[in-house]
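Please decode residue identities from the backbone states below.
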């Protein structure tokens, strides 16, 4: 069963291996930096890794799966805040399994709420993972958290 038309979401979408991650949060929280770090770490390990789109992602629900699509005018590029816009290996679309909210430590709560989700109007809810951006091993942490929620 297909859902409504795609919705433009302020996010950065990536694929690592067979899993899609949609990095969400307010401007300046580290979405792009965290996503690019995870992509670089995955590529170093020989894992399939690609950007779907940076800053804006078209998200839709198709047959109970969340599909992120690149916006043609910004596809294959990512903004490195304070530096410039850089080319990044990309794919035009991918299924998203999780949303990821990067955060800087310290945080007030030790653990996030159980079964936390990210809601996109007219599309639905995806599981939300929180990722500390201060760790040099962001990819390992992201994959462990994703596996725990799979």
């Amino acid at each position: 069963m297909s859902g409504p038309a795609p919705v433009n979401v302020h996010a950065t979408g990536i694929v690592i291996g067979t899993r899609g991650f949609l990095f969400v949060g307010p401007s300046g929280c580290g979405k792009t930096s965290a996503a690019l770090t995870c992509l670089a770490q995955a590529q170093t390990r020989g894992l399939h890794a690609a950007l779907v789109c940076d800053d804006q992602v078209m998200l839709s629900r198709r047959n109970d799966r969340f599909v992120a699509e690149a916006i043609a005018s910004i596809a294959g590029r990512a903004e490195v805040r304070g530096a410039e816009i850089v080319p990044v290996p990309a794919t035009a679309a991918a299924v998203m399994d999780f949303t990821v909210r990067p955060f800087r430590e310290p945080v007030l709560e030790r653990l996030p709420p159980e079964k936390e989700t990210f809601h996109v109007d007219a599309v639905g809810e995806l599981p939300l993972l929180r990722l500390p951006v201060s760790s040099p091993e962001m990819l390992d942490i992201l994959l462990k958290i994703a596996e725990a929620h799979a």
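Observation: The helical segments are 31-44, 138-149.
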